[in-house]
Design goal:
With 418 residues, this protein is α+β, with helices and mostly antiparallel strands. Helix content is 34%, strand content 27%.
Length: 418
């Protein structure tokens, strides 16, 4: 896209102009809202708007997201009550893609305050596809569109990693991994946008790229996919570092990086012993086993990393402690059966981690980032640093009461001295 000038104008004026585009099915391609205005707590984390053609006619489809799930509702054309309610939500950023004189135009509205906004407009060099008979540009409103892929199956990164064959066809045995990578990229992209909107993450430059470290990177599926998506699709300067205990993984990943021609470094070592020359902006810890996730979170907190995404793996430590200690009344039925005790240990472990992140100055969301049929380890801790450690208060009181009642000693709590 070619960019236009960035201007400052009253927020209400910018939203009203955007509303006129959204209300027209022949103009709107899609609209996305995310982030929040300073000092506000929006009802929704994100919202997406587009038109769809249903049996009952064209409808305005609005999908809103809270911390854990999505809600989709379809509204008849002309019924703007739901749209107006959404425009009242104090989102920090709106991005609207629309057809203007046959050219796809993207307008971004950044709400600096509840009253002023920065507005940026960019246009594509060519018009979108047109109607077969008239040749006029049209908006695709098909209801059953294939889900837009952030990185296509035939992308060079998936061929290099062995998820797709040399012809770019996804291997049947790697479909679950591909979905996992795809959904992780969606979470990462949205988290970066939210952190920018909240002014908690710096915008990278060529001189100061976004520094991402992947702790326990394994064969680098998520490391390379994140680097590829952020640089090639979103155009961000990014440097990634992968850390793994296996020297074989480092050698393999270094060869892949050379093959792809990307700026990436891979370090051999344990997560608890990792040392970096520069503190990272984003810390990833995807499926680090048991207390290795705690080591990763402790490092992220020590680095004061602005953004942390962690998908824990097994939870043996708390599970073992629950087997050794008496269950407080009246919760014996929760731990009486092994399978329930193990599932409860998973929930307990991640609840404790979320609480400790909050005590360390982070805003935390706990979400499902991929369907359970693709992987049972599908919980994602998404944390944005908002300030310094919390001293006392209800969060600390709840944490102290929880670990005292269950007589547990969380590894992350020990690492943080809490």
């Amino acid at each position: 896209m070619s960019g236009g000038e960035r201007t400052s104008e009253p927020l209400l004026r910018a939203l009203n102009r955007m509303r006129s585009q959204i209300r027209d099915p022949e103009v709107l391609v899609k609209a996305i809202a995310s982030g929040k205005q300073r000092g506000t707590t929006p009802e929704w984390r994100r919202a997406e708007i587009r038109y769809v053609d249903l049996k009952a006619g064209t409808h305005l489809q609005i999908t809103t997201y809270d911390a854990t799930q999505a809600f989709t509702a379809n509204h008849p054309v002309g019924d703007l009550e739901a749209l107006d309610a959404l425009l009242d939500v104090p989102f920090g950023r709106w991005t609207v893609t629309a057809l203007v004189d046959g050219i796809e135009t993207e307008t971004t509205i950044e709400a600096k305050t509840p009253h002023t906004a920065l507005v940026t407009t960019a246009t594509k060099a060519a018009a979108v596809a047109g109607d077969a008979e008239s040749g006029e540009p049209v908006v695709d409103r098909s209801h059953d569109q294939p889900k837009e892929r952030l990185l296509p199956e035939d992308d060079a990164v998936f061929i290099a990693l062995g998820l797709s064959d040399k012809d770019g066809r996804l291997k049947p045995s790697r479909q679950a991994k591909y979905r996992q990578v795809e959904e992780f990229l969606r979470q990462l992209s949205a988290a970066i946008d939210d952190a920018w909107a909240a002014k908690k993450l710096r915008r990278p430059t060529a001189e100061e790229p976004l520094r991402i470290v992947d702790l326990g990177c394994g064969n680098g599926y998520l490391t390379f996919a994140a680097q590829r998506y952020l640089t090639e699709v979103r155009g961000l300067p990014v440097v990634v570092t992968g850390v793994d205990v296996k020297e074989q993984s480092a050698r393999h990943n270094t060869k892949v990086a050379e093959k792809l021609g990307v700026h990436a470094e891979f370090v051999v070592g344990t997560i608890d012993g990792v040392q970096l020359e520069q503190a990272p902006d984003v810390v990833l810890a995807l499926h680090a086993c048991d207390t290795a996730t705690d080591d990763a979170l402790a490092h992220a907190i020590a680095w004061e990393a602005p953004l942390v995404l962690a998908a824990p793996c097994c939870h043996h430590d708390i599970a073992a402690q629950l087997r050794r200690t008496p269950t407080p009344s009246p919760y014996a039925m929760i731990t009486r059966h092994g399978i329930l005790r193990e599932r409860f240990a998973d929930t307990m472990t991640d609840a404790v981690r979320a609480s400790l992140l909050r005590l360390s100055g982070y805003k935390v969301d706990v979400v499902q980032f991929v369907e359970s049929q693709h992987t049972p380890r599908n919980t994602l801790l998404r944390a944005v640093r908002t300030g310094g450690p919390v001293k006392g208060g209800s969060v600390k009181k709840e944490y102290d009461e929880l670990i005292a009642a269950w007589a547990i000693k969380p590894k992350l709590g020990e690492l943080l001295g809490l």
